[in-house]
Amino acid sequence: MTVTATTTRPLPSTLAIGISRGRVEILQFVRDRTAMIFTFAFPALLLLLFGSIFGKDYDHPGVSASQVFSASMIAYGILSTAFITMGAGLALDREDGTLKRLRGTPVTAPAYFIGKLILVLGLTVTEVVVLLLVGTVVFDMPLPDAGHWVTFAWLFVLSVTACSLLGIAVSSLVRHARTAGAILNVPVVALQFISGVFIHPITQLPAWMITVASFFPVKWMAQGFRSVFLPDSMTGLEAGGAWEHGRTALVLGAWCVIGLVLCLTTFRWSRDR
Amino acid sequence: MAAIEVRGLRKAYGAHQAVAGIDLSIAAGEVFALLGPNGAGKTTTVEVLEGHRRRDSGDVRVLGIDPAAGGRAWRARIGIVLQATNDLADLRVGETVRHVAGFFPDPRPADQVMAQVGLADQARSRVGTLSGGQRRRLDVALGIVGRPEVLFLDEPTTGFDPEARRQFWQLIRAEAAEGTTIVLTTHYLDEAEALADRLAVIADGVIVAEGTPATLGGRATAEATVTWHGPDGPHCEKHADPTALLKRLAAEDADLRTLTVTRPTLEDTYLTLIGQSR
Q1: What are phi and psi of A157, to 5 degrees?
Q2: Do residues B60 and B48 lie in contact, with contact meaning Cβ atoms separated by under 8 Å?
Q3: Residue B20: other Cβ atoms inside 10 A
Q4: Stretch A214-227: mean pLDDT
């Protein structure tokens, strides 16, 4: 027996296991062709549709409606990959026995989540690249200068973090993985409409709707990405008449904290008691 | 040294008392079977031992540690083969075994484990394309790749054809020969008889009998039934020790072509035991 060897060798680190989990998560995702095509193609398809339908709908010097959609749709891309991938993925892992299997090994919850985070980061980066390609190649959206990319970076990190954490939190409400996609898409689609992603300019919406949207992250994500890719002259079409970077950071940061607290209080390895 | 000690284990789901006071002591290196009908409390008991389920009361030690407080180091020393699972479908067999091996401090080489469970040829197959029996052998591979000191198997051969079950038993015997303590739940009597050094019959959340497959429920000391055809017709006698009777029959020149000597089968004993508890 090798009992002594077993007890003297150190356990693999949480980070090492997390990275190994991330590799496996990505492998599984890439091999599920349907999920992959749907995840990546859907936001791009919506962008193509909205961009083509509204085209150069309103006259604003140098900016077309399709370029506005290109910027706003990045918020949807992040929301759909981070929030839905996390939420549905966790519900499925709970249902098909993945979490129970891992729970019976030295894998820790942080290692599992590092793996999920690697998956979500991989997906959102790819998604954003796809949307930017459509925006720049099809709709001639100009890429901004270095200063704007700094804004893009913090906005991207805060958005992915908030959406992922909320996805994890919401997953405990999903009873059956089969229904996860449908349930999670309700808040996603509703928020797109009231947050100025599908409807532009947002000022067309009733005031109370904008107020409601302002409590949620999506409005601030969309507004933030517009600030990165559109000229400052476009602030006139925003609800607050400005890009409001400070407030955006504050709201997204608050949702990160709320999401984290919800995750820590609601995460369960299984549906059992 | 006992690998597993359980005293007064109780667990209820709402009003249903699934486990109603169980005591167990399983020695290191032993193959122990928990036998019982569906819903008897086998899985709940094993899930408490695995650290998957909280108990209401009782004292439980697995490798000297309370599973409810078992950390990573403890989990590295146990192996779990859950009831039928359907995760991992898109991974290849080899990838899966190597991935899980990476969770443990001193894993067995993945290729060796795949050969051991008879999946060497399937290393590049997607898990989702395996047959039911292959899938269970993969589950065992994942359970033993970390060199566990205790291996839990929950109804491992449900739905197997007879040949697949026999192959599976060989695999478990080989693991037991390595010195691994094995705790197995099953509702198949032949499985318990074929594999277990010792077994306990559980019904309605309590242990109704415990022993070796040969002695369970007083099987070894139960009266043997002797039947034969004499010149005057069929005879049937029950004796604790049939030796004297058999000598007499041999001397009497009875027709011994019709002689039978039977003890209660494990199945008879088992059915009597679980019948008593109802």
Answers
A1: -60, -50
A2: yes
A3: 15
A4: 92
Distance from C-alpha of A88 to C-alpha of A71, rounded to nearest angstrom? 26
Closest chain A C-alpha to B75 CA, distance in angstroms: 5
Residue type, B270: Y
B179 CB-near residues (< 8 Å, 6+ apart): A1, B28, B29
Q: Which member of A5, A12, A28 has the closest CB to residue B103? A: A12
DSSP state of A236: G
Tell me the whole-structure pTM to 2 decimals: 0.85
Angle at which helices B93-101 and A14-31 cross, to 10°:
160
For residue B85, what is the nearest residue in chain A, using CA coordinates?
A97
Longest Cα separation, chain A: 79
Higher-confidence position of A234 and B30: B30
| Chain B residues with CB-CB distance to A93 below 8 A | 87
Phi/psi of residue B216, nearest 5 degrees: -50, 135
Two structure tokens written together for B5: 């000690």
Amino acid found at A25: E
**B115's tokens:** 């050969």
Q: What CA–CA distances, in Å, run from A72 to A4, A59, A248, A255, B148?
A: 59, 18, 14, 19, 52
pLDDT digits (tens, 9 = 90+) for A170-213: 888 887 878 887 888 888 888 888 888 888 788 888 889 888 98
Pairing outcome for strands B181-186 and B16-27: unpaired
Sheet holding B16-27, edge to edge: B16-27, B2-13, B57-62
A106–B72: do the CB atoms touch at under 8 Å? yes
Name the token pair of A262: 């919800």
Interface residue B147 vs chain A (CB under 8 A): yes
ipTM exceeds 0.85: no
Element housing A78 (H / E): helix A65-78
Q: How far apart are CA B212 and CA A130, in angstroms?
A: 65
